[in-house]
Design a protein that fits this description.
about 475 residues; chromophore; Rossmann fold; single chain; alpha/beta; two-stranded antiparallel ribbon; five-stranded parallel beta sheet; DNA Cyclobutane Dipyrimidine Photolyase, subunit A, domain 3
Length: about 475
């Protein structure tokens, strides 16, 4: 193997702590070249939605700052990952390329092809577990099959060897030994070249070209609809850990009892942090359990929250074993389900939160303003679309993909199929969330509703676009047509 520089390829892991690929590059002892590739052209890669692009822009800017503090720079490139990695290896004479694993089929095929090509050239290529606590291929049923039901899956997780402790962030003293340059970075000027930070300057061109972050057009401009996102969020690794500390101090104690109450601020707000890897599931696991805790999750808020982390693990387990989950019904009988063709005006009422169904409208407006929606309300809003309006779950999934800052190919699809009844471990087809009853139970004083629907209870608020009872009956009749399949 060559002793040239180490190329660290950042993807959904925009952090410096508990980053196995970066950690391995530091241990290897050669110069480190850090890169993020905006890949919207490789086959099978789904471009990010608008809200996720907003988050990515700011998270990359934060990552560049974290790396700069370590004496490293972040190079930005766009294009098909296979081509860009090959170009960078040629430009830098890289001796090794390290990355953390992805689990979608298209991503795995890209990574496998790159790894094979690099090894054929004598370049070390290694990938690492960093985004899930349990690798999907390590957990099987007693029959040697992938899990399709969450409860036994999570039981298997809790019975498996405990997740490894998080890796420490590199220190400036360690990385400084690898660098002689300024470590300066520029993500908001013209496409530029940066000073080499190599301990062996001859190994890498003195000026390594990088895209400027602004040139990627990730931020909305005409119009700028992101004011609510800026008010609600500060992306980045430091902010992720600050949010976790706030949750542990002020939300975890009431998490079990209050997490279904959307007006109560007890949710962790970790979902976009996990989506972009600003924090790792290993950091969550050990941060909530303590470094010396037994592998069995402790009772109380920690257990309830880590079970939600387990639901995310389950989504990636399904994505790995059943990659078609993102676009196809997991239960083939649903291929014959009589979905209604959505009229643009009808769909727009749901998207804009103007259905006349208060809890649904509040959730959809929260989504548009903040880029997230309370989990209980997500289920209600999704159920209203697929069951009360009989609109295909993929239509709703596409809207969430564009508007959620935590849009995740595994969780987004799995959760929509769960609500629709078309997925594994799905909600029973006869379960149709009644938004009025859900509001009475979980938002009895209408605090959440009036936060996002201030005209609720006034003559300005419209009547429901459909009768909840009649539309529920239509849904049950439609589901009955495929019951025997």
């Amino acid at each position: 193997m060559s002793d040239g520089p180490s190329l660290v390829w950042f993807r959904d892991d925009l952090r410096v702590a508990d980053h196995p690929a970066l950690h391995t590059a530091v241990e290897r002892g050669e110069q480190i070249v850090c890169v993020y590739i905006l890949d919207e052209s490789s086959p099978g890669i789904r471009p990010l939605g608008g809200a996720s692009k907003w988050w990515l822009h700011h998270s990359l800017a934060a990552l560049a700052g974290e790396l700069d503090a370590l004496g490293l720079t972040l190079t930005l490139r766009s294009g098909a990952a296979t081509d860009v990695v090959a170009e960078l290896c040629a430009e830098t004479q890289a001796g090794a390329v390290f990355w953390n694993r992805r689990y979608g089929l298209a991503e795995r095929e890209i990574d496998s092809g790159i790894k094979s090509s690099l090894k054929a050239q004598g370049i070390e290529a290694r990938s690492f577990q960093a985004s899930v606590l349990f690798e999907p291929w390590t957990l099987q049923t007693g029959q040697g099959q992938p899990y399709r039901v969450f409860t036994p899956f999570w039981k298997a997780c809790l019975g498996a060897p405990a997740p490894r402790p998080p890796l420490p962030a590199p220190t400036k003293a360690v990385t400084a030994a690898l660098a002689t340059g300024s470590g300066a970075h520029s993500t908001d000027t013209a496409r530029t070249a940066r000073p080499s930070t190599s301990a062996n300057p001859a190994a890498v061109p003195a000026e390594l070209p990088t895209d400027r972050l602004d040139s990627w057009g990730l931020l909305p401009t005409a119009p700028d609809w992101a004011a609510g996102l800026r008010e609600a969020w500060v992306p980045g690794e430091a902010a992720a850990h600050a949010q976790l500390a706030t949750f542990v101090a002020h939300g975890l104690g009431d998490y079990t009892s209050d997490r279904d109450l959307p007006a109560h601020d007890v949710t962790s707000r970790m979902s976009p942090r996990l989506r972009f890897g600003e924090i790792s599931p290993f950091q969550l696991w050990h941060g909530l359990k303590g470094p010396s805790a037994a592998r069995t999750v402790q009772p109380g808020g920690s257990a309830a929250f880590l079970r939600e982390v387990g639901w995310r693990e389950f989504a990636y387990h399904l994505l790995y074993h059943f990659p078609e989950i993102t676009t196809e019904n997991m239960r083939p009988a649903f291929n014959a389900f009589p979905w209604s063709e959505p009229e643009p005006a009808t769909l727009e009422l749901w998207q804009q939160g103007r259905t006349g169904v208060a809890l649904v409208d509040a959730g959809m407006r929260e989504l548009w303003k903040t880029g997230v929606m309370h989990n209980r309300v997500r289920m209600v809003a999704a159920s209203f679309l697929v069951k009360n309006l009989l609109i295909d779950w993929r239509v709703g999934e596409a809207w969430f993909w564009d508007t959620l800052v935590d849009a995740d190919q595994a969780s987004n699809a799995m959760n929509w199929q769960w609500v629709a009844g078309s997925g594994v471990d799905a909600a029973p087809y006869f379960r149709v969330f009644n938004p009025a009853l859900q509001a009475a139970k979980f938002d009895p004083e209408s605090e959440y509703i009036t936060t996002y629907v201030p005209e609720y209870g006034t003559p300005a608020y419209p009547e429901p676009m459909v009768d909840l009872g009649e539309s529920r009956k239509r849904a049950l009749d439609a589901y009955e047509t495929i019951r025997g399949s």
